[in-house]
Description:
The chain is mostly beta strands. The protein has a single domain, classed as Lipocalin (Beta Barrel), CATH 2.40.128. 7% of the residues lie in helices and 61% in strands. Strands 1-2-3-4-5-6-7-8-9-10 form a ten-stranded antiparallel beta barrel. The longest helix is centred in the N-terminal third of the chain and has 12 residues. The chain starts with a helix and ends with a strand. Keywords: Signal. This is Outer membrane protein beta-barrel domain-containing protein.
Amino acid sequence: MKKLILLMLILCACISSNAQVLGSAQTLGKGKGNFGMMPALFVYSGNDQLMLFINGGYGISNGVDLGLKLGVFGNSNFIGMDVEFSKSKNFSLAGGFHSFNDLAMDLTGLVGFNLGNGARLSTGLDMDIVFANSTKVPVWVPINLEIWVKNNMTFMLEADIDTKLFDQSYHLITAGFQVYF
Length: 181
């Protein structure tokens, strides 16, 4: 019951929150966690901005994890959460809520590929439904490369490329380290 109450409090807190992918197609195992710090560059029609992302995750059960993201030191703060569901070893779906100037809902599908010993590539589609004065629906193609540095640490490089399918948005480039525990 305590876990359910905690999960509900986190979900309610994140109703006013924003999420980008910042991760791979694999979920954390039950009781496992991660923590990362990644400087990021938002590229948007000359209004580029730098931000520092702090993210963490926790494996709620096998095949389901909760991710929290905080972006600071930019023009606006960024806060978000998502719940990711593993559909197979190499495919996951995630949904969450986020805020980055406006309230939005985030939907993501990712597929992952092992690139040999110690490296993994993930890609897919990430869509936001932004509830501003007029609803916007930007769609990105995330490309994430994760390279294992140690047994419990990876270097992660990610580019979220705006598709301009429905609305024009920003591109995101980020790199940093993730620690798994």
